[in-house]
Amino acid sequence: IDNDKFLGELIEYKARCKEAEEKGETPPALSNYIGQCFLKIAERFSNHHYFIGYSYKDEMISDAVENCVMVVRNFDPEISKNPFAYFTQITYFAFRRRIIRERKQQEIKYKIIEDIDIAAVVDSDDEEMMRYLAENVRKQVDNDEKVSYTINSRKKPRKAKPSLFD
Q: CA 79, CA 81: separation in Å to the nearest integer?
């Protein structure tokens, strides 16, 4: 991405938005170059080692591009001359929000699987088979929870803030 060209396109877009606003019209569409920049930023950022292993990369990219389009008018070239960094930060936080949403959904699925009655789902008279299935499902849930725990345990613990009353 050519940061100077990207900046020029954004300045031109903001000028067209201002003209449309003065005339009482709807804001103009983004140029193809700006859209391509958003997509390139999101696609390349999805290959960063923090995000490489997720199966829902397409959703992360879509969220990032959508967020960039939503806040494109908030970019102020007088404050920053680096739109690449600005939209990369937006992409990063969009990815984080998607990961949090997906983890919540995953936890819900695990709770449902934990509470499910295998006998009600599988139509079998073989009691040993039922126990085997239930045990394997629970092992899988336990294993996934351990993986989730190890991923979350890598975070550094926050320092306790001093209280006013200490």
A: 7
Q: Looking at the predicted structure, is the pLDDT value of residue 122 above 70?
A: no
Distances in Å between the alpha carbon of 78 and those of 24, 72, 114?
25, 14, 54
Torsion region of 24: left, alpha or beta (phi above 0 gives left; psi -120 to 50 gives alpha): left
pLDDT value at position 38? Answer: 94
- What is the maximum alpha-carbon separation in the chain? 75
Write down the pLDDT at residue 118: 59
Could you tell me the pTM of the whole model? 0.69
DSSP letters spanning 24-57:
TPPPPPPPHHHHHHHHHHHHHHTTSTTTTT-TTH
